[in-house]
Design goal:
By secondary structure, this protein is an alpha/beta fold. The strands form 5 sheets. An 8-stranded antiparallel beta sheet has the order 3-2-4-1-10-9-11-14, with helices on one face. It has a 6-stranded antiparallel beta sheet with strand order 5-6-7-8-12-13, with helices on one face. Helix 10 links the parallel strand 17 and strand 18. The longest helix is centred in the C-terminal third of the chain and has 36 residues. It starts with a strand and ends in an 18-residue tail after the last helix. It binds 5-amino-5-deoxy-1-O-phosphono-D-mannitol. The site of 5-amino-5-deoxy-1-O-phosphono-D-mannitol (M6R) has 16 residues, from helix 10 and helix 16.
Length: 616
């Protein structure tokens, strides 16, 4: 959940590292630090509590020269977020500096053993144990850095992406990966390291994604990077080309990434459907469904595993697949699934949904399902990340990098892929009528245009509504059918960025408990579009109004009744019921955004959260 960056080459390392940290700050922002081997003063480490901007202030006027360095932005796991626990950590001898993303599970045992040998620790972190262990082995056994890293990693249990430098060797960085992402960028006489490719993209498009147990030996004067495993066996890696441009990872004039990403959704969905949805030919084509037709159409059952927003997309996926393909679907929290004893075998297909492709719980759920023989299909955004690499096949959502911690465009991208997947499978199984399929293809294709129209029409109005409700301490979100997960998603967005308590509920469940909460202080957001359950939702709204609750309704353009009852309403362009989440979610994303901004919250980097949850 931390971000790591490294550089060795011909330019000054510090600006490359700082820029890289800013790109990776979405992964954690409790503290930041940098280690450089400077020309005049040797190994220099600067670190501070807070964000990368605080680190920049802290280094102001200090010696930040040098053409080799490593840097870190932290999401705290072991030890409170202060400057002592910030990375890089230095070994007691002052010889080695390390940065680490992950968790060393057996750190306490290793720490005790090292302390018995007289090693003194400064921080409360698991990471310091790693650097102390490596340095202890290096001096006791009189071996080189690579050998000591290999030996130490054989003793370590846990997850890591790490980079280490030696004060006496300004020509080498050693990096390693186990369960946490790490990318090496290969430039012309220079090398880069990053938790993802975003710190690297403006310098080179040649990268290697490390696999678990890989160690990279990066030498300044070499034209390549050597890869070995902990047993010193050589590993060959294909150099990949990154397909990412700079504008995708910058704010492009918006005040926050979240707002930019909300407004990008029409373009993102066009990108997601490009080459897959063809209105002229009346079809939906997913290469994974062509390549693995047998496994997918004969599935006895689908099990969707995911976390957070991706789990909400999974709840919509369940309805789509069951309705169109007539195959039963279960939706599981990956964190629960991984520790359960699921009854699955090779007739089951597990769908893993993850924006980052790195979520530790989802990855572990995939591994468990794989062990039990299930066929695994991934729906991810980050190209080349761990989950797509662990699956049998899958479809990327192609919405571009999502930087705001609150997931927005990834959600609609995931729902779009789930819609295409269910249509492609349903067609292949013959469980959908031709005319229904054709209507769906047409309507799905029209969604980006309708999103554009919706964004144009509702943005200002929601901005105003948000000002009215900034006072609220609690919110209720209600929806039914396809819009029940939309209610859950709206509530999650609000709580994670504005810190207002919010609950999502299926509307009809309100009378079984939550109705007791309703009074004149309580805003209730109701997704009440004109579909089969419209009349029922209207009764729910009457019940709220009877208790003086304040209703913000999301209604269809042709609505004539709900708008009369509601205190505020937002109109959605008409579409098919199963596609409504692709529209109805947008006003809820905007409302959470504007409320959080009005409350002065850090929208892109909300407290206690990180974009990529690579720990349990
Ligand atoms: O990268 P993933 O989709 O696997 O992430 C899952 C959740 O951590 C993520 O959706 C989280 O809930 C977001 N902050 C929600 O906005």
């Amino acid at each position: 959940m931390c971000g790591i960056v490294g550089y060795i080459g011909k330019r000054q390392a510090y600006p490359v590292l700082i820029k890289g940290l800013k790109r990776l700050e979405y992964r954690g922002y409790d503290s930041a630090g940098v280690a450089l081997i400077t020309e005049s003063s040797g190994l220099q480490v600067y670190k501070t509590k807070g964000k990368v901007a605080d680190l920049e202030k802290y280094t102001d006027g200090k010696d930040v020269t040098g053409t080799i360095g490593i840097a870190h932005t932290r999401w705290a796991t072991h030890g409170e977020p202060n400057s002592t626990n910030a990375h890089p950590h230095i070994s007691a001898s002052g010889q080695l500096a390390i940065i680490h993303n992950g968790i060393i599970e057996n750190y306490a045992v290793l720490k005790d053993q090292l302390m018995e040998k007289g090693v003194e620790f400064r921080s409360d972190t698991d990471t310091e144990v790693l650097v102390q262990l490596i340095d202890y082995i290096r001096t006791k056994k009189n071996v080189d850095l690579l050998t000591s890293v290999r030996m130490a990693l054989r003793m370590v249990i846990g997850a890591y992406a790490l980079a280490i430098i030696d004060k006496d060797n300004p020509d080498q960085i050693i990096a390693a990966r186990q369960s946490s992402p790490l990318v090496v960028g290969i430039g012309d006489g220079e090398f880069f390291l990053g938790s993802d490719a975003s710190p690297i993209v403006e310098y080179t498009d040649k990268v290697v994604y490390l696999d678990d147990q890989d160690i990279a030996v990066i030498n300044r004067n070499s034209d390549h990077v050597e890869f070995v495993n902990v047993n010193n066996e050589k590993i060959d890696h294909e150099i990949k080309k990154i397909n990412l441009n700079l504008s995708q990872i910058e704010k492009g004039g918006y005040p926050h990434f979240m707002l930019k990403e909300i407004f990008e959704q029409p373009q993102c969905l066009m990108d997601c459907m490009r080459g897959r949805v063809n209105v002229d030919l009346n079809n939906v084509v997913l290469s994974a469904v062509i390549d693995y037709r047998k496994e997918l159409i004969n599935a006895r059952r689908f099990i969707i595993v995911a976390c957070g927003t991706s789990w909400h997309a999974g709840l919509i996926g369940k309805q789509l697949i069951e309705n169109f393909c007539q195959i039963p679907v279960e939706v599981e929290y990956a964190s629960e699934f991984r520790y359960s004893n699921p009854v699955i075998d090779n007739r089951d297909v597990v769908i893993a949904i993850s924006q980052s492709g790195e979520t530790a719980d989802t990855l572990a759920a995939v591994e468990l399902a794989k062990k039990r023989g299930a066929f695994i299909f991934g729906i991810c955004n980050a190209i080349g990340s761990s989950i797509p690499r662990a699956t049998n096949t899958g479809s990327y959502i192609h919405v571009g990098p999502e930087i705001g911690v609150a997931s927005t465009k990834a959600f609609t991208g995931q729902v779009t892929v789930l819609t295409m997947l269910s249509l492609a499978i349903a067609k292949a199984r013959g469980t959908i009528e031709n005319h229904e399929y054709e209507t769906l293809v047409r309507e799905l294709n029209a969604i980006p245009e309708k999103q554009k129209q919706l964004l144009d029409e509702c943005n200002e109005k929601i901005h105003e509504i948000a000002k009215i409700f900034t006072y609220a301490r609690n919110f209720l979100y209600l929806g039914r059918g396809y819009n029940y997960p939309v209610a859950l998603e709206g509530a999650l967005k609000l709580k994670e960025i504005s810190y207002i308590h919010a609950e999502g509920y299926p509307a009809a469940e309100m009378k079984h408990g939550p109705i007791a909460l309703i009074d004149e202080e309580m805003p209730v957001v109701v997704v009440a579009t004109k579909n089969a359950l419209y009349e029922k939702l209207m009764s729910n709204i009457q019940e709220i109004k009877a208790r003086k609750g304040r209703v913000i309704a999301i209604v269809s353009k042709d609505d004539d009744k709900v708008r009369e009852l509601a205190d505020e309403y937002i109109e959605l362009p008409k579409t098919l019921e199963c596609l409504e989440p692709l529209l109805a979610t947008i006003p809820l994303q905007l409302m959470a955004y504007y409320i959080a901004v009005a409350k002065g919250k850090d929208v892109d980097q909300p407290r206690n959260l990180a974009k990529s949850v690579t720990v349990e």
